[in-house]
Amino acid sequence: MKRLLILGGTSEARLLADRIVDRFSRRVDVTTSWAGRTARYPDVSGKVRVGGFGGVDGLRGYLRQNKIDLLVDATHPFAQKISAHASEAARQMNTPKLNLLRENWNLPASEYLYLTEDLNEAAEILKQISKRTFLTTGSQTVSAFSSIGSIWFLVRLVDPPTNKLPLKYYDLTIGRPPFDDAHERKLFEIHNIDTLVSKASGGRVPEKILVAQRIGCPIILITPPSISEGDSTTSIEDVIAWIAHQV
Fold first, then answer.
1. CATH topology for 113-222?
2. β-sheet bridge partners, residue 50
3. Distance CA 78, CA 57 (A)
4. What distances in angstroms separate CA 122 from CA 48, 195, 208, 222, one per listed residue?
5. Cα-flanking dihedrals φ and ψ of residue 141, to 5°?
6. What single-letter DSSP state applies at residue 39?
7. What are 2-59's pLDDT values in tens digits?
8. How far is the C-alpha of 20 from the C-alpha of 29, rounded, in Å?
9. CATH, domain range 2-101+227-246
10. How are strands ordered across the β-sheet holding 70-73?
């Protein structure tokens, strides 16, 4: 039996694990690894591990100790560090690896759409155009906006923060996506949101983006870093075929 490690972080990782267990249950032993940055993680078929590996050396040791035959990187598009570690560890161990990427959003060009890789640049743009911002880029990015004292923020997080956020004016909304149209529209209306800040995470375009587009609300998108090294696909079917070829 082949041993497969899926580096998770996306809904696609969960779907992939479910598909592999369903099709290859007697030929592939599947473990999905979640980073553990949130208190909850999705239910998934097969085995689960939670937490970091300890860099390239730690991941290489995990691959060796657990006799991993195949590696799929299905991490979040912004998880560049673990993706880089995975590429190097797989290279050193000569472990076949495939990246499952999300398709980029193809949003129409608009005077209300701002694209940047830099959170600091996003903060500068906000200072010029916003008074009430819906901030949905995650807890690790909030500090980039801490110097802004003229804007009220609605900050969405997956888990309640353990400490006060470094923002002068803000409120919190806690929840795990996906969110439907009615939910997102209500947030924009109740809080008089005039600007949305989001990561361009790829895959299905979320309702918050569609709502903002419909009402003419400016959107600042934080674009992801470069694509992971090695063979890549955006299709779960391609990953299934790749595994079938290996086993």
1. Rossmann fold (3.40.50)
2. 34
3. 21
4. 36, 11, 18, 8
5. -105, -10
6. S
7. 999 999 989 999 999 999 999 998 999 999 999 866 666 778 889 999 988 999 999 9
8. 9
9. 3.40.50.720
10. 47-50, 28-34, 2-7, 70-73, 97-100, 232-233
